[in-house]
Amino acid sequence: MSKKNTSSNLVFTTDGGRLCHQCQRKLTNCVCGEAAPQQGGDGIARIRRETKGRGGKAVTVIEGLPVSPEVLKDTAKRLKQRCGVGGAVKDGNIEIQGDQRTTCKEVLEQLGHTVKLSGG
To answer: What is the secondary structure of 28-58 as a DSSP string?
Structure first.
């Protein structure tokens, strides 16, 4: 009979329970919480104009902002005030009513974000 290898790496265990996908700690000991960014992304905010599924109305969609949900809501509020239109935060993206790409790009660059216009 052979002896068991005591220096082997652990492959799987159910001892710790579920782990956070960002900090790799137990969910009960997670340090990420609500302040963690929603998306990993490349850190570049992409701005596009979208009309699909909106009855022909144009909407400016900003995606990929590497900030926490609270900062995302604050940024959306600033953009809506600057453009003078309504909008919302949905699924980690900011939606601003109308074609406001250039104004949104200026505001986001002033806030220190790297911005690219995507789409046509």
So the answer is: GG-S-GGGS-S--S-SEEEEEEE-TTTTT--
CATH class entry, domain 37-117: alpha beta
Of 86, 37, 91, nearest to 65 (Cα)?
37
What are the start-end ranges of the H helices in 1-120?
Answer: 69-83, 101-110
Domain range summary for the chain, segments of one domain joined by +: 37-117
Q: Is the pTM of this model over 0.85?
A: no
First to last CA, the chain: 69
pLDDT by 10s per residue, the chain, length 120: 555 656 667 666 666 667 776 676 776 677 676 555 555 567 889 999 999 988 989 999 999 888 888 899 999 999 999 999 999 999 889 999 999 999 999 999 999 999 999 886
Helices 101-110 and 69-83, interaxial angle, to 10°?
Answer: 130
